[in-house]
Design brief:
The protein is of the alpha/beta class. The protein has 7 helices and 7 strands, in the order βαβαβαβαβαβαβα.
Length: 250
Amino acid sequence: MDTVVVITGASSGIGAALAEQLAAAGASVALAARREPALREVAARCPSADRVLVVAADVTRRSEVERIASETIDYFGRIDVWVNNAGRGITRMPSLLTDEDVDVMMQVNVKAALYGLQAVLPHFKARGSGHVINVSSLLGRVPFAVARSSYSASKHFLNALTAMLREEIQQTHPGVQISLVSPGVVLTDFGNSALYGGVDSRTLPGGQTAEEVAAAIVKTIGTRQPDVYTRPGSKAQIAQYYATIGSDVA
């Protein structure tokens, strides 16, 4: 796989698993996250150290995301795929949400992805090709978990933004794809790391491993499909939910 891939949120979970799988397949990877020691550990598990770049950066800051792009291009000469994987959850009922709660979810789950796309897009347009993958969530389609309301809302925003950006960009640059990948429950420490804490995601039923989700992202890099669910049956589950709510005006 002669591909250069930037992965945000690469220090653990899905991002770390994705880095290892891509590196094992021969890709070059730029690993971005705030925790440099954790990034170094992930890099050490990847073969061929010369094909791994560690960039300690805070993706909630536009200038830091732009630095990820420039350092990757300086090191590898190009970027082929940019995976916006960084994200954070929250556990708080919607009636209790504060301005800060909403701001954090939007900054991490929406703005960071927008910064990534806008940082790499000029490079992709100049080359006439490229692929952005935004990692969303099944909660971005269906508001199942009330305590995850602000997280769910931020992922709904990301989904709409992804679709509109794809439509805009492919009108002039059809070689640039923007994909959305939506996992369900992932068996990581995501729940424990949520704002205000939360249920350990590894204890929830029907979950997938980070490796399974990463494999779906690797496949999406190959197929360039625009919209992907990582868990079988998710599309039907969403359709069933919306079939039971709402009604037409009589």
